[in-house]
Amino acid sequence: MRVAETILDTIGNTPLVKLNHVTEGIAATVLAKIEYVNPGGSVKDRIAIKIIDAAEAEGKLKPGGTIVEPTSGNTGVGLALVAQQRGYRCVFVCPDKVGEDKINVLKAYGAEVVMTPTSVPPDHPESYYSVSDRLAAEIPGAYKPNQYENLNGPASHYESTGPEIWRDTDGTVTHFVAGVGTGGTISGTGRYLREVGDVTVIGADPEGSVYSGGTGRPYLVEGVGEDMWPGAYDPKVPHQIIAVTDAESFEMTTRLALEEGLLVGGSSGMAVVAAIKAAKDLGPEHTVVVLLPDGGRGYLGKIFNEGWMRSYGFAPVAEEKTVGDVLS
Ligand code: PMP
């Protein structure tokens, strides 16, 4: 029988899928690593299991303990899944720009969610960093994974994402592209690939974020970009950082669903824009792997919503039709 003992055993070993349409005019092979097939729906399941395993091994998380974390959703889902299976309570702190669907998913897994304003600086007492510090200090038996500083995040990618890409491309990968949020994905995967091969590592960053020289000016794409430099990010790993605008990211996100059958989030669109920019000047002997962190179902009220897209001046994926429109 091929049976997983628990849902946690299905984390990782995600597929590489060739992009065939959005890559028109590109000679290099561009492969997307589809992280939404992880059980929690994102790449963050990988860091969740590694971080909790390590916290248990180090005695930082004890039976009956509580996990407290500031998270934009995906890390929370991963942590909630692992915590639920192992009997821990979860309290998450989320900035209010995060979509309601993502919050409801956290609650569905049994987590408690506290919302904080996006518009305050990180050192403000109401910021999601400050609120989570306070909860972690005041809840007995609390453990704060702190994905921004926890080196088990990049380590999980060094141990799983990187080796999977090397194995599944038979060592032919020449470029790796990923969006940068905590920096865990690019730092761990990139470090592995640079050690085993001659792989160029490229970070994708929302225009305005610190990684591409900005100050952290608000942008709409979720899960990537920063207004500070997290410890999980190793700036020595990427050879290059490419800044991508919200408009470019959202246009590509809608095209991935329409043309490639990939219903993914905005940071996936952003990463593919950067991958295509990087691949433009490459010949057919190159293989670019781009990581798509999550699925599009958490963004149905935003990127895939006509009114929301129009309200920010972006072209919606499809306009609603009348029966007459369809028959004409
Ligand atoms: N995209 C999404 C949707 C995310 O939730 C995250 C994690 N914050 C990322 C990209 C970036 O991954 P990392 O934190 O490993 O840099």
From TrEMBL:
Q: Which residues constitute the signal peptide according to the record?
A: none
Q: What is this protein called?
A: Cystathionine beta-synthase
Q: What is its EC number?
A: 4.2.1.22
Q: GO CC: one term?
A: cytoplasm
Q: Name one GO molecular function term.
A: cystathionine beta-synthase activity
Q: Which family does it belong to?
A: Belongs to the cysteine synthase/cystathionine beta-synthase family.
**Keyword terms:** CBS domain, Lyase, Pyridoxal phosphate
Instruction: Give a GO biological-process term.
Output: cysteine biosynthetic process via cystathionine
Q: Does the keyword Zinc apply?
A: no
Q: Which reaction does it catalyse?
A: L-homocysteine + L-serine = L,L-cystathionine + H2O
The main enzyme category here is lyase
The protein's organism comes out as Ornithinimicrobium ciconiae
Q: In which pathway does it act?
A: Amino-acid biosynthesis; L-cysteine biosynthesis; L-cysteine from L-homocysteine and L-serine: step 1/2
List the cofactors.
pyridoxal 5'-phosphate
The keyword ATP-binding is annotated on this UniProt entry: no
